[in-house]
Each structure stands twice: as structure tokens, then as C-alpha cells.
Design a protein that fits this description.
Layout (H helix, E strand, L loop, with lengths): L8 E5 L7 E5 L5 E5 L5 E7 L6 E8 L7 E9 L5 E9 L3 E5 L4 E3 L5 E8 L14 E5 L7 H5 L2 E4 L10 H8 L6 E6 L3 E9 L10 E9 L1
Parallel strand pairs: 1-7, 9-15
Antiparallel strand pairs: 2-5, 3-6, 4-5, 6-7, 8-10, 10-13, 11-14, 12-13, 14-15
Length: 218
């Protein structure tokens, strides 16, 4: 049986405030994990039920340099010696966009989740944004003032709705911060624009990235 990793390549963002994690998984077996460049990425094995057997590992972007760096993470089967390889790249986020399953929400309907997708300069999607902080706003539009916009749509915390977000979102909300995903709810009919930007020192010069107008229906 040929064993594989869950992904052959991981792209992690540069951050000076935290180490952005990603879970790398191997199929079956017990593995030892290591990175060829620990100044770029560090590897922390996750052991099963207190044993020394590991099929998963946490990868953390270690570099804080605003430049592209790469490393190879190796998972070595402790019985057969078979090696599994994952290429890990740490790079600066070039752009972000807001992803949603729809551009329309209904008044008094369940909240809509918006998530951030981050891209490098070549258009590749980053594998994880876990723990990074973002600033979300209902944008001021030329045709509508802020009061009118906020009367049409509002941003909800996950703690205010019956949703179970990832643990890092729970921790960010407890600290009165926002992460790479939010909930929005329609209040009355009309259109509104949601914008987001990265709240990290290395990305302070980056502008807001807007979501095409959300339309609320009765």
C-alpha cells in the first residue's frame, strides 16, 4: 500500500506577530518528522493517545523576513524507513479576497459566513491563515453613508450565533479581535459592501479589499 501525505505542498504567510500553523498528515504508520531548514519552518509532531506514534505534525512558519523562503518537511516511517516529502514555502501575502457561498442574504435568515482567501504574487492560495488578525468593516460607499449601510447589514460574532468556528476564532473573539472569517446578517432590504484588511505589521501598507455588494432580500 502506497502511503501519502494529505498535501504535497504547503504555502504559509510571513507574520511577525505569530507562527501561522498547518496540520500535515500521513496515512498509517508511525513517523518521525523534521524540516531541512528550521529557520523557515518548524515541525511539532502530534502523538496519538500519549504514545510515541505520530501520523500528524504541526507546521509553523518561522521566518519573519518579508521575502520568499522554502524548506522540505520529511516524514520518515520508523519501521520501514520510507520517506514522505512535503515542500513548504513561506512568503508574503500579495493580495486577499473575500469568499462566500452567495452574494445574497435574506432578512431574518441564518447568518452568512464570509472568509478570506490569501494569494501570493503568483496567484497561489495560502494553506492557512489561522490566528492572523483582520479588520472587517461595512464600507462607506459614495451613494450611502455609514449609518445607512449599517442599518442594512451587521457583522456578528460567532459567539452570538449558533455556529462552531475553529478554536483560533474563538480565542480571537475573546480578545476582541477578528480573524479570517466572520458572520454577517441582513437587517433590511438593500445593498451593502463589506471590506477587510490584514492587521499585521508587515502588511500595514496593504489597502482594504472589498467584497462585491451584498444584497438583502425580503
Amino acid at each position: 500500500m502506497r502511503r501519502m501525505l494529505n498535501v504535497p505542498k504547503v504555502l504559509l504567510p510571513v507574520s511577525r506577530e505569530l507562527r501561522v500553523p498547518f496540520v500535515l498528515e500521513a496515512e498509517g504508520g508511525c513517523y518521525s518528522w523534521y524540516a531541512t531548514r528550521q529557520d523557515t519552518v518548524t515541525v511539532e509532531p502530534i502523538y496519538k493517545n500519549g504514545t510515541t506514534c505520530s501520523q500528524r505534525a504541526l507546521l509553523f512558519a518561522q521566518s519573519t523576513q518579508a521575502t520568499k523562503l522554502s524548506s522540505v518537511v520529511i516524514a520518515e516511517d520508523r519501521v520501514t524507513g520510507h520517506l514522505l516529502r512535503c515542500d513548504v514555502i513561506v512568503d508574503v501575502i500579495d493580495s486577499i479576497e473575500i469568499i462566500s457561498r452567495t452574494r445574497e442574504i435574506y432578512v431574518e435568515d441564518a447568518p452568512l459566513e464570509l472568509t478570506v482567501r490569501a494569494l501570493d504574487i503568483e496567484g497561489n492560495t495560502f494553506s492557512s491563515l489561522s490566528g492572523m488578525t483582520f479588520e472587517w468593516n461595512i464600507a462607506k460607499d459614495d451613494d450611502m453613508d455609514s449609518l445607512e449601510l449599517s442599518s442594512k447589514i451587521r457583522i456578528l460574532k460567532y459567539s452570538e450565533a449558533e455556529y462552531s468556528p475553529p478554536d483560533y476564532i474563538v480565542e480571537l473573539e475573546r480578545a476582541e479581535k477578528q480573524g479570517d472569517r466572520i458572520l454577517v446578517s441582513g437587517i433590511k432590504t438593500g445593498a451593502a459592501v463589506v471590506k477587510v484588511r490584514i492587521q499585521e505589521p508587515v502588511y500595514k501598507v496593504k489597502p482594504y479589499y472589498g467584497f462585491p455588494p451584498l444584497k438583502q432580500n425580503l
